[in-house]
Amino acid sequence: MQTRTLGSLKVSALGLGCMGMSEFYGARDDAESIATIHRALELGLTLLDTADAYGPFTNEELVGRAIAGKRDKVVLATKFALVRGPRPEDRRIDASPAYIRQAIEGSLKRLNVDHVDLYQCHRVDPKTPIEDTVGAMAELVREGKVRHIGLSEPSAATLRRAHAVHPISSVQSEFSLWTREPEQDGVLETCRELGIGFLAYSPLGRGFLTGQFKRFEDLAADDYRRFSPRFQGANFQKNLELATRVADLATAKSCTPSQLALAWTLAKGPHIVPIPGTKRRKYLEENLGAERVALTPDELAKIDAFFPLGSAAGQRYPEAMMGSLGR
Questions:
Q1: From the candidates 25, 54, 119, 201, which is the catalytic residue?
Q2: Using one digit for the tens of pLDDT, what is the confidence trace for 176-189?
């Protein structure tokens, strides 16, 4: 695979988001998930992204089992700060120095490793100055428990403050044809200016841009997306029109809708690394084919015209979760 850099951290041009292997998107299949991770490594993908909040905790354990004996092939990224309770609504954000110290020890144990290549603050903690959060993360770098650090969903201003304390290698935020806010809020440009990489999560619009969903009822009963505003009511139908445009453009390009959407994300900047999630080998292999899809300037302009900023209908998260973004 081709490679890109997150700050000074070299990674494959596409990563693998592991969250859906453990929850949110229907039933688990740990055997197929582990086989998917193994296949990814065979094909040259190096970046695996997880978090202690996924499961919670079980996704790190799964990834830990999958990379046993293969640590030297993996750029391992995990996150902290989202603290979950027994109920879905029991959530809080804690990025205090004391909690960071506790969180890294738990992640290292579950992943069964002695260091994490990229340690990311999952959400900015409004109760803790970002300087204190990053300072504590920098201590972990000095101790060798962490190699590089990153932030998820920060504002451009917060990113600058953080980078002044210790080099930030990456920002992880949602970015796709139907989530283009990083182009508007200055985060992508700030990353480019400061030499920070950008991890684009949900680059396939939580699966919507793949064309596999035609009706709300196509979602499993326990699928998180049933609670996502973009998958509900009139929003679903409006966004279905966007997905249809992707499919039409993909047909003209002789690729799949997923490959077209990922190729667009890759083309938005050499510092951008999409991390589509999947728990099945066939979709992994399809996604990695995006590297072979070269979009011309005219094709990119046509896609941008079809998907102007703000074209997706509905917020990307339920209202209660929107407040934690862009702090």
A1: 54
A2: 998 999 999 999 99
